[in-house]
Amino acid sequence: MLRLPKFVTRTLSVRLSLMIVSAITLLLVIALLIMLGYSRRTIKDEAKNNAVQTLEATVEHIDNVLLSVEQTAGNIYLDLLNHLDKPDRMFTYSRKAVETNPYIIGCAAAFEPYYYQEKGQYFMAYVHRTETEGLTATDSPIIQANIFGNRPYNEQAWYTKTIERGRPFWMDPLKDDNTEDEAITTFCLPIYDNGKIVGVLGVDVALNTLSRIALAAKPSPNSYCTLLGSDGSYIIHPDTDKLFHQTVFTQTEKEGTDPSVKEAGEAMVSGETGYKSFRLNGMDNYVFYKPFKRAALQGRSMEDLGWSVGIIYPKDDIFGDYYRLLYYILFIAIAGIVLLFLLCWGFTHHELMPLRLLTKTAQRIAEGHFDEPIPESHQQDEIGRLQNHFGQMQQALAIHVSELERLTTTLQERGEVLQAAYEQAKEANNMKTAFLHNMTNQMIPPVNVIETNVNALCANYDKLENHQAGYLVNNIQQQGKAVTELLNSLLSASEQQK
Question: Is CB count within 10 Å lower at the N or C end of the chain?
Fold first, then answer.
C-alpha cells in the first residue's frame, strides 16, 4: 500500500484532495465493475448467440451437402436396381454419381463374391476423382478402378457394416489403410435382389471438402468449426493431419495436454449441448457445441449419426476487444484520477492560502511578534471573513500588548525607585543599629562602675569612712553624668533622623 510522507498528509489541501479523489475513485470503481461485469456478460452472450447461429448455419450447410449426396445416390440406386444383370453398367452409374455431384469424390458398387460368375470372385465398379493442384473438383480427372484400399472390399468396414445393418447409413470417417490416401465419410446403401442383400453402393465425400465448406463461415477471425464422429474422430477440422490420424481423445493423450480438452471432447461425443472452456497449445478457448441433427424429410434415412458439431472460439476473439477497452478505461481512469487530484489540490491550495497565512501569523504571534501585519481579504466566504476577523483581533491584541508594555515599563521604573529607597532605608537602619550598638557599648562601663560603687556602698556603708563614702558617691555621680550625656546624644540623634 502506498504511504505518503507525513509532511504531505499534514497539508490540509492534500488531505482534502485525497478524500475527494478517494470518494470519487470508489464510486468510479463500483460503476466500472458493474459496467464491465455487464459488458463481459453481454459479450459472452453475444459470442454464444453468434456461435449458436454459426452452428445452425454450419449444420444446415453440411446437411444440405449430405442431402445432395443422398439424393444423388438414391437416384442412381433406383436405376441400378433395374439393371443388376448388366455388371459393366455399374461403372456407368458410379461415374455418373461422381460427375453430377461435385461433393462426391468416389462411388463404388461392390457385390458379394461370385455374384457375377463371369467376373470371378470379386467385382466392384469403383470410380473416384483425384485432386489435382490448380483444378476445381469438377475439373479433376476421374479414374475407374475395381479395388479400394489395401484389403478386399468385403473385409472393409463400409461394406461389412452395410451388409450387417441392411439399411442406408453414413459411416464415421474412414482413414489410413481403409482409404485411397484421403480421409472420407461414406454414404452406404445395401443393394437388394429379390429381398436378399447382394452388394453395397458406397458414395464417398472427402472430409477436406466438408472442412472447406464449414470453415468458410466463422464468427470471428481465429475461430473455426469442428465436427466429431461418434468415436471422437475429426470429420471437420482446419488441421488436415487431424483428419487423417487423430481423434479428440488421441490428442489428449499427448504429454502436457490440458485435461479440459478431454472433458470438452467427451461432452461433445456424448451428444450434449452447451459450451466449455479449455486450454490448448497455451491458449484459452471456448467450444460451443450441439449434436448434428439432420433435417427430417420424407423417404430420408433418419438414423442418429452420433456426430457433434462445435465452434472453437479463442478467448481473445471473444474478450480481446473487451480487455483492450478495459486497459484503455483503466488508463483513462488513472489519468483522470491524477488530473482530478491535481485540480482539487490546486483549487483547495488556492482557497486555503488565507488559512496558511493565518497559521504563519499565529506562529509569529506565538513567538512574540504581536505587530505582524495581516492583509485584508476580499473573499466573501468563511475563510475570507475569518482572515479579516483575525486581522481585527491581531490589531486589538497589538494595542493591548503595547499598553501592557507601557504599563510594564512604568511599573519597572517605579520599582527601581522603590528599590533605591528601600536600599537607602536599609542602609539608614543599619547605621542606626550600629549607632545604638556603639552607644550601648559606651554606656556599659559607666553603668558597671555605678553598679560596683552602689554595691560597695550598700554592703559597707556602716564601715566606710566619710572620705571613702564621698569618693564612691562622687564616682557614682561622674559615671551617671557620663551615662546622661550618652543618652542625651542618643536622643539628639533620634530627633535628627525624624
Answer: N
HEC letters along 385-419: HHHHHHHHHHHHHHHHHHHHHHHHHHHHHHHHHHH
How far apart are alpha carbons 225 and 310 in whole angstroms?
Answer: 6
Q: Are the beta carbons of 313 and 51 closer than 8 angstroms? A: yes
Nearest 10 degrees: Cα torsion 35, 37, 43, 44: -170
DSSP letter (8 states) at residue 219: S
Please give the Cα distance from 239 to 356 (Å, whole number).
Answer: 74
Check if the beta carbon of residue 201 is closer than 8 Å to that of residue 90: no
Query: CA-to-CA distance for 303 and 125, rounded, in angstroms?
Result: 27
HEC string of 331-390? HHHHHHHHHHHHHHHHHHHHHCHHHHHHHHHHHHHHCCCCCCCCCCCCCCCHHHHHHHHH
CB neighbourhood size of 395 (10 A): 14
What's the grid cell of residue 18?
485525497
* Rg of the chain in Å (alpha carbons): 64
- Tell me phi and psi for residue 124, to 5 degrees: -145, 130
Residue 367 CB: number of other CB atoms within 10 A? Answer: 9
What's the pTM value of the predicted model, to 2 decimals? 0.59
Residue 248 to residue 269: CA distance in whole angstroms? 9
Q: What is the pLDDT of residues 265-286, one digit of tens each?
A: 888 888 888 888 888 777 888 8
- In the numeric block, which cell numbers belong to residue 265? 471432447
Q: Which tens digits make up the pLDDT trace of 169-222? A: 888 776 554 555 567 888 999 999 888 999 999 998 887 777 777 777 677 777
Which strands sit side by side in the sheet containing 308-314, from one edge to the other?
234-236, 224-228, 308-314, 283-291, 274-280
d(CA 185, CA 103): 11
Q: What is the pLDDT of residues 58-91, one digit of tens each?
A: 888 888 888 899 899 988 988 889 888 888 899 9
SS3 content of the chain, % helix, strand, coil (to 5): 60, 15, 25
Parallel, antiparallel, or unpaired for β 274-280 and 283-291?
antiparallel
In 3D space, the residue among 216, 241, 278, 175 whose CA is nearest the CA of residue 62 turns out to be: 216
Question: How far is the CA of 17 from the CAs of 6, 179, 256, 342, 360, in angstroms?
Answer: 15, 77, 53, 8, 22
C-beta contacts of 492-495 below 8 A and 24+ residues apart? 493/435
In a 3-state reduction of DSSP, which class is residue 449? Answer: helix
- C-alpha cell, 71: 439424393
Task: Report which DSSP code applies to 147.
Answer: -
